[in-house]
Write a structure and sequence with these properties.
163 residues, mainly beta, 7 strands, 37% strand
């Protein structure tokens, strides 16, 4: 743990963490209550900073999002949050885009729809999925901590100027 006094010190510390090969840093207010492994925006006591890089790629595939089937019972963990179920037979197609397969530098990987994709947009994108194949896009990902492929890929925007 380090005591940070101002934005310049925070930026210097963040850059040192990235240079050391770490994903980023977490800042916590000195008086904020500590909760192991979690924090909330409402409490406003901790902030996570990670580096993201952007690249251009070509969409070569579209995958459908899966959703939990109606009536599947969910359980809650010790802090009251719903637990994820992993059994494949509990899921069904949702009729909307779940991920794009993007090619960049002869590598392929999955990129999730970004912030501009609400459920209506994702449903329309699934219906017209063939229109995305071969189109250029810009995506962001975490360059640190990745072994062979970009981590946590997210579509930022389409790039019609490159098509």
């Amino acid at each position: 743990q380090f005591h940070i006094n101002n934005a310049e010190e925070a930026e210097t510390f963040f850059n040192a963490q990235i240079t050391a090969g770490n994903e980023g840093m977490i800042l916590r207010q000195h008086h904020a209550k500590y909760k192991h492994g979690r924090t909330t925006l409402k409490q406003d006591g901790m902030w996570k900073f990670k580096e993201f890089a952007t690249h251009d790629g070509v969409i070569i595939g579209v995958e459908q999002q899966m959703r939990l089937k109606e009536g599947v019972e969910r359980t809650r963990n010790e802090i009251g949050e719903l637990e994820r179920r992993y059994e494949q037979d509990l899921y069904e197609p949702a009729g909307m885009v779940g991920a794009f397969t993007v090619e960049m530098d002869r590598q392929t990987f999955k990129v999730k729809p970004g912030k501009g994709f609400d459920n209506v947009t994702k449903t329309g994108s699934w219906t017209g999925r063939e229109n995305y194949i071969g189109k250029h896009c810009e995506f962001k990902h975490m360059p640190h901590g990745a072994k062979d492929k970009p981590r946590i890929g997210s579509l930022v925007r389409m790039r019609p100027d490159l098509d």
